[in-house]
Amino acid sequence: MPEDRRMVGDQVPVLVGWEDLAVREDRVGIHPGDPILLSPDYRIDEVLSRYLCRSSFARLAPETKRNYTDDYRLFFDFL
C-alpha cells in the first residue's frame, strides 16, 4: 500500500478502526480521486458509486469526472 494512502487512527482520531481503508477501497475497485455519492441518510450509495467507479464514467478525465459528479449531485438533490 502506498505510504500516502495509509491512515493512522492516532493521527486522525475519527479514523480509529479504519486503518485498512485503502485495502478495502482497492478490494471494491475505488481508486484515489474516484467520486463517492452519499444517499440521503449519509450512507455510501452503492449503486451510484458502482456506476461512477466501474462504468464508462470511470474512464473520463479526472476534471470531467469532478464536473459531472457536481452536476449529478445537484440533480439527485433536486429529485
Tell me the number of strands: 0
Mean pLDDT, to the nearest integer, reads 78
Number of helices: 3
Envelope shape: globular
Low-confidence stretches: none
| Beginning-to-end CA distance, first to last residue | 39 Å
Number of domains: 2
H/E element order: HHH
Helix content: 40-55%
Report the sheet-strand fraction: under 5%
Nearest-angstrom radius of gyration?
14 Å
Secondary structural class? mainly alpha
Largest sheet: none
Notable traits:
79 residues; 2 domains; 3 helices; mainly alpha; globular
Task: Kindly describe this structure.
This protein is mainly alpha-helical and 79 residues long. It folds into two domains: 1-30, no CATH class; 33-79, no CATH class. Helices cover 43% and strands 0% of the residues. It contains three helices and no strands. It starts with 20 loop residues before the first helix and ends with a helix. The mean pLDDT is 78.
In brief, what are we looking at here?
By secondary structure, the protein is an all-alpha fold.
Topology (elements, then pairings):
Layout: H1 21-28, H2 46-54, H3 62-78
